[in-house]
Amino acid sequence: MQVEMDVDWAAEALKQQRSKIRWLWIPVALLSGLALALGNFNVGWGLLVLGLATLWAVLGTIGYSLLEGLYVIGSGLRGYGPDYRAVGLFSYYKNRKTLLANVVGYVVLLAVGIVFPGRVEDPELGSLLLGALQCVVSGLPLDFANLFIARRWGDSPSMRKALALWLPAVAVALLAHWLLMDLLSYWHPTLVFPANWWAGPVMTFGFLFLMIGLHHSTLRWQHRLAQANQRADEADTARRLAEAKLAVLQAQIEPHFLYNTLATVQYLLKGEPGAADFLLTQLIRYLRLAMPSMRQFSSTLGREFELTDAYLQIARLRMGGRLSVDLDLSTELEAIEFPPLVLQTLAENAIKHGVEPKTGPVRLIVNARRSGAELIVSVQDDGVGLGGAPTHGSGTGLQNIRGRLQAIYGERARLSIAGLPQGGVLASVSIPLDKTQD
Fold this sequence. Notes:
This protein is of the alpha+beta class and about 450 residues long. The protein contains eleven helices and seven strands. The chain has a five-stranded mixed sheet with strand order 2-4-5-7-6. Strands 1-3 form a two-stranded antiparallel sheet.
């Protein structure tokens, strides 16, 4: 399902990208064709339309790049977009379509700077058109440097590596600018004004500072996204470790019940085969209920009560009918999420250490209730009480319950074991309802 979603997302993103490219270059092509047609009749109108085409191409390319960057950043923050390494200044120079946009832009600027300045009558307008050539010599060395950086060091080079190529590129751009101005002073002496001499360095350093700012922002975004990605990986690792821990704890609980039950069946087979047959029937019932969820990390309170009832039926038979059981679970609590085998382990401990050692009739009460924002599940017996049994267990079952509750709910869950004044023990588990209802 996730693969299908990724494919659909990629197809939709590609469709949107193509739509944006069309809106960028179709108007440029139409305006350029109109400019060439008008140039044959009126140079001024042709220049005006060509200027609009150039402005559309430049602003559209910059706007498209910025919007794509913001889209990728935003989709990455929402958690379903491209990898954060694809966000940045240099990813622009690894895209063939955007590189083609750069080439077309420089070709248009060259055409404007070479063809039109000598054909206009106004010297100031001609000087302005010569600025197209200055844009070429000011930006082309830095663009070549960016292309080399993107190919050599990828999308996330350090600022030191970028400056190591940007500064020589600036020197080349300044040298090319002075050589261009010397040539233009020779070819078009009436069109070269003092402003043309300093316009090139201003554009070169402006381009440099713009790239430094963009790359610095990119590195900050990438660092933040990398931290978020690391935190997500750490959370996923912690979840996997918790699940592995729960699997180990469950593996320790399951044999504990099965061994006791099978030992009882073995005992009954010696003198009461009918009771042994009934006990095996109850065991089969229990396993049919338990096996589908034994390897799961979550169950429902209704299922756990049903499993516990199957277990207690086995225990009641084993004790010769002197055990009475009372299970109290309201219908509204049946669907609440609850850890598997916790309730059955509490009931098993109550029988083994409290009920069985006591002579005569005994009673076990299993209850679930709400208490504010908590769910409290308890097992109460009227057995011999804490320390009253002649033998003591290892405590593995209770340790496992505490470990599982800690892994699932943290400090918000509690297991308490308390002796009762009238005799017997009350064992209760408290878990937060907000976790169970998510």
